Amino acid sequence: MFHPSGKSISIGILTFCVALSSGLAIAHADTLRMGGTGAATELMKVLGAAFEAGADDVTVEVIAGLGSSGSIAAATDSALDIAVSARPLKPAEVETGLAQSVFAQTPYGLVSSNPNPGDIAASELAAFYASTTSTWPDGTPVRVILRPNRESDTALLGGMFAGMAEAIDTVRLRIDVPVAATDQDNLELASSLDGSLVGTSLAQVVTEHRQLHFMTIDGYQPTLENLENGSYPFAKSFYLVVSGTPTPLAQRFTAFLQSVDGKRILSAAACRPVVN
Asked: In terms of DSSP bridges, do strands 119-120 and 216-217 run parallel, antiparallel, or are they unpaired?
């Protein structure tokens, strides 16, 4: 009832705000928030949906666009329950109390929009990457796409093949070579650019349903089977990063990754589950 003093209205509004705040607090407590490397964004969505479906009291929110470093910073500030990183923690990040573990590995290689990129020896890959005259088997030119210098895939690719770090530095001097800021930009540009050549993981190509084609290296395709049997040794690791005292939801999700359903989803996404 309206009262000339306005007290009834004020009390009503206060009661509503308290109830709303309580509701938000409950929702927050039951919401698992995670994010991280763009290469695993779609994978996290699939895993999150399965985890949510098996737990009536949990909502999963996957925050895209953070990248490895951004998600680690968010986990440090407790804005995320879980960060998924494409690189290990730096010493300064470890000092903040974060903990990490590798939960999956996926084949890593070089893809192109060219439907038949062919085979190359690992020892010749750096020279092929750096040359301005490299061509695909059909004679069309190779068009390299770079990643930012500080991006985790730059370090990964640079350390994976002999001479590749120097080859990347050489290509970076060319003004005609585009730079893709994110993992999604990388594959979007690779898909639209004729003769593209980019480094990426099989998991990202599979989960994003990209029509791109991997080069074979030393005669082997970057398949999950070849990674597991050792014939294709080039891999990208995904790290689970949590607080030193992880939230109960983070602990439950970590356990889910080790479950039969979690491992099945990882395998379907071209990832080898890593048991910790």
From this structure: parallel
Distance CA 11, CA 143 (A): 67
Q: Is the pLDDT of residue 81 over 60?
A: yes
Where do we find the tokens 């009390």? Answer: 11
User: DSSP labels for 235-258?
Assistant: EEEEEEEEESS--HHHHHHHHHHT
For position 24, what pLDDT does the model report?
Answer: 42
Nearest to 178 by CA among 203, 199, 147, 202: 147
Same-domain pairing of 99 and 162: no
pTM, rounded to two decimals: 0.86
What total number of domains does the chain contain?
2
Alpha carbon of 102 to those of 85, 94, 254: distances in Å? 9, 15, 11
Q: Is residue 1 assigned to a domain? A: no
Please give the residue range of the domain that contains residue 203: 106-235
Residue 2 lies in a domain: no
pLDDT tens-digit readout, 127-171: 999 999 999 999 999 999 999 999 999 999 999 999 999 999 999
Nearest CA-CA partner of 242 in 100, 63, 65: 100
